[in-house]
Amino acid sequence: MASQRESRHEQGMATRQHEAPARPITVTLDGNELTVIEEAAALRVTLIDLIDGARASVKLYYYIFADDESGRLVCERLVAARARGVAVTVMIDAFGSSDTPDSLFAPLVAAGGRFARFGTRRSTRYLIRNHQKIALADDARLLIGGFNVENGYFGIPADDCWRDLGLLIAGPQAKAMAHWYGQLWRWVSSKGQRFRSLRAMVRHWHPSAQHGPAEPFRWLIGGPTRRLSPWAQVVKHDLEQAQRLDMVEAYFSPGRGMLKRIARAARRGGARIILPALSDNGATVAAARLLYGPLLTRGTDILEYQPCKLHMKLIIIDNAVYIGSANFDMRSLFLNLELMLRVEDQAFAEAMRDFVGRCARDSRQITLEEHRASRTLLTLTKQWISYLLVGVLDYTVTRRLNFRNPDAD
Fold it and tell me: Which residues lie below 8 Å from residue 96, measured CB to CB, with a gap of 6+?
């Protein structure tokens, strides 16, 4: 079993404002060194170091790449990489980065770098989003997670930022993403960006083709298919056998089937879910709260993260850890292009479960009694409307509807 492999782990103490920064969780597994990046400022430092350390190539894909201090800094380092002779390719999502001008990348293109947008056709730009986040240097060092290139994900400003997570991978596993990135660039740079060929790309990236039964790593691609997204099908399978579940999710609005699987895991061995108390979009918080009742009734522990907005995407099912770009909402479960890495290793899972415990100490537990007391007719109506909107429309669109903070009612 992958969980029985020898591995090296280091875990630090919890990071809080009044404590020294935690030592990062690290693991060396099958010749790959994995480092979990917990701190917002460290995410930007790690990304810049990845670019500055590249010798042959840098490949970036981000859903949001903002024209702000952080975005301009990253672009400056990319131009500097080109000056060293490094091949640089950047892709961004046409919808997620719709406010970002092409002029931000003009110096990079002038220096010989490549730049393109995913989803330039009007017929697919709104429907299909590439929500992945990839930073790859020399096809050997890879940074993934839920964060975008924007000040808020790097702790700027400190009083209105996102809490997220990154995973730095150094070793042969990075080549799997070099293969996927090449396919993605060919599609983005193709004439027309055909939806049918995109679906075929996702469908043919089958997990079993990339994963041996004794290997701890499993790269999962999500995207528009006729059923549950491929990455979510693997989660579904693990949930059906789960003895223990821990989740930290920015957006949580799954369907009835997934809720039942979570509830069964809670009854078998325990389930803990940490969700945001704060967001840039009150509709997503309200939609998640609609689902608390059935989960609390069946023994699921639900907590709401208090210090800041939560943007994390982390799932731990028994000895399997999922880290990447996918939320646990309808868009990520069925439609978005997503990237998740599944790592099966007992010690790594225990370290990440301890990390969730540290997040839990900064969270407020929701009791069934409290939840029932809060369910006024007005609150229920707004939660149902929010769930329908979040389930059918993208959270970016619901944010534009200007929902108030759900705690204000």
Answer: 62, 63, 64, 129, 131, 148, 396
